[in-house]
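Co-fold these.
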Amino acid sequence: MTAYDDLLAFTRDTIALGEIAGRLGWDQETVMPRGAADQRGEEMAAIESVLHARRTDPRVGEWLEVAEAPDEVGAAQLREIRRVYDRTMKIPAALATKLAQVTSVAQGKWAAARAAEDIAAFLPVLQEVVALKREEGAALAAGGSLYDAMLEDYEPGTSAAEIAATFDAMRPRLVALRSAILEKPAPAALSGYYPAETQMRMTRELAEVFGYDMTRGRIDKAVHPFSSGSGNDVRITTRTDEDDPFNCVYSTIHETGHACYEQNVDLAYLLTPLGRGVSMGVHESQSRIFENQLGRSRAFTGWLFDRMGEAYGDIGVPDADAFYAAANRVHPGFIRTEADEVQYNLHIMLRFDLERALMANDLQVGDLEAAWNDRFLADFGTAVDKPSNGVLQDVHWSVGLFGYFPTYALGNVYAGCLHAALRQALPDLDAQLAVGDTSGATGWLKDNLQRHGARYAPREVITRATGAAPTEAPLMEYLESKFGALYGL
Amino acid sequence: MTAYDDLLAFTRDTIALGEIAGRLGWDQETVMPRGAADQRGEEMAAIESVLHARRTDPRVGEWLEVAEAPDEVGAAQLREIRRVYDRTMKIPAALATKLAQVTSVAQGKWAAARAAEDIAAFLPVLQEVVALKREEGAALAAGGSLYDAMLEDYEPGTSAAEIAATFDAMRPRLVALRSAILEKPAPAALSGYYPAETQMRMTRELAEVFGYDMTRGRIDKAVHPFSSGSGNDVRITTRTDEDDPFNCVYSTIHETGHACYEQNVDLAYLLTPLGRGVSMGVHESQSRIFENQLGRSRAFTGWLFDRMGEAYGDIGVPDADAFYAAANRVHPGFIRTEADEVQYNLHIMLRFDLERALMANDLQVGDLEAAWNDRFLADFGTAVDKPSNGVLQDVHWSVGLFGYFPTYALGNVYAGCLHAALRQALPDLDAQLAVGDTSGATGWLKDNLQRHGARYAPREVITRATGAAPTEAPLMEYLESKFGALYGL
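Predicted complex below.
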């Protein structure tokens, strides 16, 4: 056994234990008896403590000093192990403990403050979180940019400056597109009653239509849709709203994108650092291209209109064109998670700018709500009416997730690039989608991106798949063209 | 922090990790995608390896040397920690590894041999298992009785001699009772069609009727019924046979007995060595008294007859007396797991005597089948027709479970003692059961036995609950009286 072998074997067990912790998380959100919550908290703490001890085990550092990669894949394994280990070791244990404690409290206070529309009840603990995250960022950055150091957790190798340049190019075009659309009459929405059981049957069908392997996964209901696991055990959750079938349909297709990425990673990487999606942004690109560029395309919605007619009878729109318009409605709203393709990125840019300012100490927590509301009015043309529709709507900051938000919009940018390349590679894509056949598209994504797992860095894997470095141009052209045609702009 | 505190905190985390491993086992048998089996094997190995390292951690030995119990409960905690630690440390690591490997192979060979009715294909690996178990027993016994040392794993503080004396007193009476019953005409069985969905609805109702707390548990289907977990997360599985509703009904009540024992342990003991049922035998006493002395009583079956009539319509028997007889049919058969109250213990005694002889080297593996078939003919009056109906029917020996079988019959003996005491304490028990109210009985078991968890040794907790040391007398009187009346002996 070489040092490399020892290190990989040790890491493999750590990853397997991490998968177990993830499986417990799934259990908690789907099947766990509600009376088990406190006990589960203690069980989770026990396995997290084992994981932390392994991730900071000095042997990992010793192995990394002498390990020699046997080949290029091995070099990529070492790169990933080193990146995570170096980062973990930079954070003082006391700070990590304090952050865990404070964010746990902060999450509870955030939920209570949101329910009570009482921002003052949340700001003191948010102030603590921000201070601790700045401390953590300073430890990680070692003199460099705090925020860039935070981005490394979610989108390795991407700087705030690059993201800002991309977002700055998108923002005026999105604001203009949004305004132009909202001056036009809104298309009709669906109407009718959609039994939950029928929706769950269609959920399973849709997941398989998009290439999800049910023999290596399962679908359950949960309050918030998510996908979890890797390799041969990747599970999806979804939810149903008996008045709004699109909620379930597009949550399912979105999570199927995440899940297929995990299922399609080369099984040679199973339970190794390369056996996962490479970053939050690339992950989101897969869920978004499944959901939007494929799932909300005119071609695919034509097939879906027929299937929903068979399943539910009259759904309140007369034909496939009206159905396509309903699936792509742009409507005013305060909430990020309910936003359409056009407005979603504006929500992200707002958060990105505010959280960068917080981390740079250019914005104080006490001024956050005013900054949020000013920016929202500027970009969306509406005054925020209450904190739950504004600065209190997302859990992220309460749990210390700074640097995470921009990856949602980066995912859209990457999806735009991949979609353009996919259209080049498959000239008859629409003919396939029009009969509910996504295999050409999902197969292309598997072959050109998903199978690599974390083998290549985020921007590199997009570049390899598309033949060019990612830019916002394809996404913006897609949005302006699609919604221009839909709304007759 | 004293050594006692450190030891308890460490043990608490180990137990929490053990609960996690148990939860993965539940997941595997109920909801895991079938394609995940190999990956799950690797994940389980990773957590088992963590558990093994903790169970053999030299710090446990150091703490045990100096720890002082703060009170009697603390003394019981130390007793349990010491018992498990001493036992674990007596087994050489190489032997433990070898046993794990060989039993894993043996289980596969057993399943194949049983399917092929080919005992010769199983005997060589069984020979290996027996040799390794004898080696393990010698390490554990340190000069004492091998088999007694093995019993310690399942029924601490109980000797083979005590068990043999009990069984020897029962065997002739059971053989005589069985023969007398089988000379009488068999009562009618149920007939009809029992939809699986209705059975699952009734399963949930029955579990709650017997005191199972659904807010701290759940019920799912699995191939083999089991209960798993402790404290506030205790889950049951059951199965349905659409021609035979009793299979599901009595599996459910049986597992509810196990599950209620775990749910009802004093929550002050949660995730500590005392926070579990104390032994296999005492555990089985709870499942058996729920299933048989309560669930198959004339009083309770009267209520159940009405409920099943409401749920299924005509079930093929005219009245509650005929239903009671159907629920207590004694019929010839080869298979332990399908045996009734009268014959079940005879199956166990056969295995107890044979496995003791194997461990004492008084019986060779090559002679095992003949010994089994001779004994079966003597006690059951029938010649075994094929290995799957004889020596190949149970998985236990292939996976190295020697010393486990007798706890099933000990459970029946303990259930007999508890039932007699319960009848003394609750003179109007039958009136309660006749209206489907088990709360008097299950409350008595909770207060007098279940809440103690592993606080008292097995025989001690039975003695405390009943006021006398356990003997076979109450069980035998119950069986002879009940079946004497049923069959007009």
